Amino acid sequence: MGFPSEKELKQMRTKLARAEPSRLLPKNATKADQVKYKLCEKFVMYLNERKTSQVQLAKKLKVDPSRINEIVKYRIDLYTVDKLMDLAEKLDLDFEVKVA
């Protein structure tokens, strides 16, 4: 596998320029938002560890792929803790909820 051509690089740059970045957790985040953020991290780790795509995960969870994209972009404002926990439990993700 060689280095991508200039045309391929240009296409990648165009895609990246339009891509929405992942969101960071604000310093003053609520406990609920902290839990949601940690759950989103678990989904990202699941995808990376299993080398699976968002589309494949969406099929497995029977949700629209755009919903998985929102989760891996840490769009915690779009989810409740219980919804994320429900999805995580369907995957048998290992997580522990701590409120300090």
Going by helix content, strand content and strand pairing, the class is mainly alpha
H/E topology pattern = HHHHH
Largest sheet: none
Please estimate the helix content.
55-70%
Which percent band covers the strand fraction? Answer: under 5%
Q: Report how far apart the termini are.
A: 49 Å
Keywords for this entry:
about 100 residues; mainly alpha; about 60% helix; 434 Repressor (Amino-terminal Domain); single chain
Could you explain how this protein is built, in words?
This protein has 100 residues and is mostly helical. It has a single domain (30-100), classed as 434 Repressor (Amino-terminal Domain) (Orthogonal Bundle). 59% of the residues lie in helices and 0% in strands. It is built from five helices and no strands. The longest helix has 20 residues, at 31-50. The relative contact order is 0.15.
